[in-house]
Q: What sequence folds into this?
């Protein structure tokens, strides 16, 4: 008989948020694969449980090499428990590679549902939750970050991102530039921890706030693009959309045509807005 792979959610802050089944799974697993074995020890101590199985590290640096070993254990009948530092495994954490390999071998995969920074931030943001997409971490390099944001500039679903505190100001500034400084967002910091904070406001204001420095674990929730029809897009928004497309590599003529089609207005209206903005920039002091 083959074994079973168990993905277990762990607290993202408050240890009392640990799912009730977690302690039993930690105690009974044949193999516990942990993103950080030191954090695993702190977790088991806090829960008052001892692991009886073999403990191995499973993190980004050794994920590719260790996956075959874990699959072999599963194929031999082992119950393998996968835990990451916080939240659900494979959601911007190690896990996907192992799950895919187990599925390919027809090995059962189940989960101990637990806390999720993505869903917690989304629920607290005050932004629409009926449709959303999780974008993980944006690229560290400025050009790649802007390019990725341009890909979702017209995405109407709410967007959820993870970000490191020391890059938050640059990320929010880039979001304001590409998505619009008036786009609503929420910065969720230290969720479920003592100094939990949710800062809500337009991207431009949040970027200025973050420039002073922000600490802690960060999740950013951004409002989706507005569904604006004919006559509802002002000239500035038309120009912004053309600029985003041009920066993504489109020629101006093609960008103007695409924006006009999106807004369901004549191409001439978009062209006039672009020319007016260009003339205004030339005459500005």
A:
């Amino acid at each position: 008989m083959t074994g079973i792979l168990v993905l277990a959610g762990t607290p993202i802050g408050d240890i009392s948020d640990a799912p009730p089944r977690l302690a039993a799974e930690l105690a009974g697993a044949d193999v516990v694969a942990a993103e950080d074995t030191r954090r695993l020890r702190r977790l088991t101590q806090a829960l008052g449980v001892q692991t009886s199985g073999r403990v191995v590290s499973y993190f980004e640096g050794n994920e590719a090499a260790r996956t075959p070993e874990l699959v072999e254990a599963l194929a031999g009948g082992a119950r393998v428990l996968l835990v990451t530092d916080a939240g659900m495994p494979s959601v911007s954490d190690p896990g996907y590679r192992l799950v895919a390999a187990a599925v390919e071998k027809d090995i059962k995969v189940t989960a101990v549902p637990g806390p999720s920074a993505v869903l917690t931030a989304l629920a607290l943001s005050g932004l629409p939750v009926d449709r959303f997409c999780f974008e993980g971490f944006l690229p560290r390099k400025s050009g790649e970050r802007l390019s990725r944001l341009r890909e979702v500039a017209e995405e109407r679903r709410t967007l959820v991102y993870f970000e490191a505190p020391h890059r938050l100001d640059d990320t929010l500034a880039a979001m304001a530039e590409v998505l619009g400084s008036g786009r609503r967002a929420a910065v969720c910091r230290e969720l479920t921890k003592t100094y939990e904070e949710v800062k809500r406001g337009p991207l431009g204001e949040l970027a200025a706030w973050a420039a002073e420095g922000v600490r802690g674990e960060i999740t950013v929730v951004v409002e989706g693009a507005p569904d604006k029809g004919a006559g509802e897009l002002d000239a500035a928004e038309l120009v912004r959309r053309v600029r985003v497309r041009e920066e993504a590599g489109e020629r101006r003529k093609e960008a103007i045509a695409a924006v006009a089609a999106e807004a369901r207005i004549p191409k001439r209206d978009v062209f006039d807005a672009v020319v007016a903005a260009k003339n205004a920039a030339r005459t500005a002091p």
Observations:
- The chain has eleven helices and ten strands.
- The beta strands are 4-8, 31-34, 54-57, 79-83, 108-112, 132-137, 158-163, 184-189, 197-202, 218-222.
- The first strand starts at residue 4 and ends at 8.
